[in-house]
Amino acid sequence: MTRVLLAEDQGMMRGALALLLGLEDDLEIVAQVGNGDDIVPKALEARPDIALLDIELPGRSGLDAAADLRTRLPECRVLILTTFGRPGYLRRAMEAGASGFLVKDGPVEDLAAAIRRVLAGERVIDPALAAAALSAGPNPLTQRERDVLTAAVDGATVADIAAKVHLSPATVRNYLSAAIGKTQTRNRMEAVRAARQNGWL
């Protein structure tokens, strides 16, 4: 039996996926979590063969958890399953060590087949998204620019952002200015929106 951990914040979706995958003869759901902070502790406890991770979760993102799993539980493969098929997310998922990336609108049979392919050592990526990622190019934002934009998501002031990321207000302004330039937007809220749409945050 293949042991599966499922991370999905929407309870109904998580329950439906667990039920449908549980009908497969060779798959067993050994853990379910709705918060990104619970992924690694639960995986260390349940020892799944594969973790199905959503990206946008309360707490840590599925992408951050994927990178942690690669270090702390290298035998566990990661398959990202998300509503948001953004090229930047795909690129970050691959950098984090994910073995697959699928968008949630496919049939559950395809998901079960993807799990088996990943466990056989294949990389499984949504074909349309792979093509989009190739044409989109790499993330132009540095890690610090991403940190500053992430802290600006809720319309925080420069002083708030500076306190959150432990930088001076002047340095925060410089990073915001650079991010606005790289995203070709007019202000930081537009830069946040553009970076999110591309999956860069």
From TrEMBL:
It comes from the Bacteria. The keyword DNA-binding applies. CDD domains: LuxR_C_like. The modification 4-aspartylphosphate is found at residue 54. One of its GO terms (biological process) is regulation of DNA-templated transcription. One of its GO terms (molecular function) is DNA binding. Residues 134-199 form the HTH luxR-type domain. Residues 3-119 form the Response regulatory domain. Keywords: DNA-binding, Phosphoprotein. Pfam families: GerE (PF00196), Response_reg (PF00072). This is Response regulator transcription factor. It comes from Streptomyces luteoverticillatus.
